[in-house]
TrEMBL record:
One Gene Ontology MF term: polyubiquitin modification-dependent protein binding
Domain of life: Eukaryota
Annotated stretches, region: Disordered: 476-501
Compositionally biased region (Polar residues): 477-497
UniProt protein name: Putative UV excision repair protein Rad23
Organism expressing this protein natively: Lupinus albus
One Pfam family here: UBA_7
Biological process according to GO: regulation of ubiquitin-dependent protein catabolic process
Length: 565
């Protein structure tokens, strides 16, 4: 029986080693048991040589430790290497991390692209526009164009972060919320003083810390909660008076304040401030009790035709008052219907703006100013072109419209654009039909008869070949003709629904778009509402309050503080 001194992966002495009976696999297994790793992940080195477990003697037997030159008190270095199974897991982990990193990078790029396209009034390439609204659904313009873009980015990332929290993906949510914090930091602080989105974002970040249960973020969590507390008090007013006025006497903020106080209590506990922790947790518990919805109240609200989730939300935000909750839900449904009508109106407006084209600085024609000119008797197409040329300057557009020479030139330009647009549409339609397998000359002849794309297809599939005029054989339309007009103007002529014309000046910034990620972001925005930031299911918070109150009581009775792992 001898002793072997081990260093490296595990440091210590292995006693009672039988050198004649032990082999390298047996020694590795012993070290693996003591170092909490697998034996195939250990490499042993003694006297500068790697100890291989498959070394055999002249008889073909695996050599024992004596045969390998190991003696009493020999020093052996144990190193960790990647086992085959761990190698596969590590590779899978690395692939997953790479995919995660790529997705987060795509998310940030898509948010930036959407904000740049929608914050400056440019003509959107989608059939929707993203706008900043207050809790009443009124459009808000915050500071400069840079401020507006920063706020828009921050709000999109906050919405995505909250969705990830609801899915339980706290690690990714933390990354996304950090991006949101960075975006908000680009905005003038004065612009954000009276809104609570930024302090709510800080609370959400600390909530992710808490759910990941990593005490290393303790000091950072404390600083963030201080910022959140100051921001909430500034935005909601003393004793929440400002918020109560904005919300018509309702109490939407209770769940947010509950989470804030819970997190303050947790940080105080882990910092050894027991009384501060107890006070914060007790206040959070009182709010938790207020947010508990009784079965009777829930049943009464649901009997009015509302779903369980919306009924609970309404009762929580209205201090459990059934009548107020029902009024709230009726009001919310009215707002939702009005929002849907506004979205439809805005989509139609965007389609109309796309017909008119963009100004020299890539802005859309202002529909309100256009309607003003139309209301005093000007032709709509003529007025739109005048506004487009003059960067939506109503007075300059009016000067052009009342100048006979300029007005005539605009009219000629519009007619020219109509002809070019029709030619582009026709060429595009011809290429579409030729792509179906029809002979080009016959397709061109069929289009000369006039009619829609359906009519042309009917002619090609039903009429005898002799009916198609061969005189059109020499006509060669421009393939995929997308030539823009000389000055970048856009005609107001409407294309048929079944024919698409690729207009470059209306499709700026399309190349390189991450359509999938942008659609995902726009869906998050479309499915959210003004009160989503306050709509928190507090079941996890309730359990955490109980857990930490017990910890505080236990620590107080022991007279000391023990940090949780």
């Amino acid at each position: 029986m001898v002793k072997l001194k081990i260093a490296g992966l595990w440091v210590g002495v292995i006693e009672n080693v039988e050198l004649e009976n032990w082999t390298i696999p047996m020694l590795k297994e012993e070290i693996a048991n003591r170092s909490n790793c697998t034996s195939d992940s250990i490499k042993l080195i003694c006297s500068g040589k790697v100890l291989k477990e498959d070394t055999v003697d002249n008889d073909g037997k695996v050599q024992n430790l004596i045969q390998l030159g190991i003696k009493n008190n020999s020093k052996i270095l144990a190193n960790r290497v990647t086992s085959p199974q761990e190698g596969i897991s590590l590779k899978q982990h690395m692939i997953a991390e790479e995919e995660r990193s790529t997705r987060l990078s795509r998310l940030k790029t898509a948010v930036t692209a959407l904000a740049e396209r929608h914050a400056d009034g440019s003509l959107p390439i989608e059939d929707f526009s993203i706008e900043v609204e207050d809790q009443n659904g009124q459009k808000v313009r915050l500071g400069s164009e840079t401020d507006q873009r920063a706020v828009m980015m921050g709000l999109m990332l906050l919405a995505k972060g909250k969705r990830l929290i609801r899915q339980g993906n706290y690690k990714d949510s933390l990354e996304v919320l950090s991006m949101g914090e960075e975006a908000f930091s680009l905005c003038d602080p004065k612009v954000l003083e009276l809104v609570d989105n930024v302090p709510i974002l800080q609370i959400d970040i600390v909530w992710c810390y808490f759910m990941i249960r990593d005490i290393r973020w303790l000091s950072d969590a404390g600083k963030r909660l201080e910022i959140a507390r100051a921001g909430i008090e500034r935005a909601h007013g003393k004793d929440f008076l400002r918020l109560r006025l904005l919300q018509g006497g309702r109490y939407p903020e209770l769940a947010v304040h509950l989470r804030l106080e819970l997190l303050e209590g947790v940080v105080a506990y882990h910092s050894g401030q027991l009384e501060k922790s107890r006070k914060a947790l007790a206040s959070a518990k009182a709010k938790f009790v207020k947010l508990q919805v009784s079965d009777e109240a829930l049943s009464l609200v649901m009997s009015m035709g509302f779903g369980e989730r919306e009924a609970k939300r309404a009762l929580r935000m209205n201090n459990q008052d059934v009548a107020s909750a029902i009024d709230f839900l009726v009001e919310e449904r009215t707002k939702k219907r009005q929002k849907q009508e506004e979205d439809i109106r805005r989509r139609d407006e965007i389609k109309e703006q796309k017909r008119y084209g963009m100004t020299p600085s890539k802005k859309a024609v202002d529909i309100e100013r256009l309607n003003e000119l139309v209301s005093i008797g000007f032709d709509k197409e003529l007025a739109a072109e005048a506004l487009r040329r003059n960067e939506n300057d109503t007075q300059q557009a009016l000067d052009d419209l009342t100048n006979p020479e300029t007005s005539s030139a605009i009219q000629v330009h519009i007619e020219s654009r109509k002809r070019k647009r029709k030619e582009q549409a026709r060429n595009s339609a011809i290429e579409k039909v030729v792509g179906m397998g029809f002979e080009r000359s016959k397709v061109v002849a069929a289009f000369q008869t006039g009619g829609s794309l359906e009519t042309v297809l009917q002619i090609l599939t039903e009429q005898p070949e002799a009916d198609l005029a061969p005189a059109a054989d020499n006509m060669q339309p421009a393939v995929n003709s997308t030539t823009a007009p000389q000055d970048g103007a856009s005609s107001s002529a409407t294309l048929p629904d079944n024919v698409s014309a690729d207009i470059p000046d209306l499709m700026h910034n399309v190349e390189g778009r991450d359509v999938e990620m942008e659609e995902e972001l726009s869906e998050d925005i479309a499915n959210a509402d003004a009160l989503d930031d306050y709509d928190i299911e507090v079941n996890i918070e309730g359990e955490a309050i109980t857990e930490y109150l017990n910890l505080v009581d236990s620590a107080s009775s022991c007279g000391k503080m023990v940090l949780s792992q």
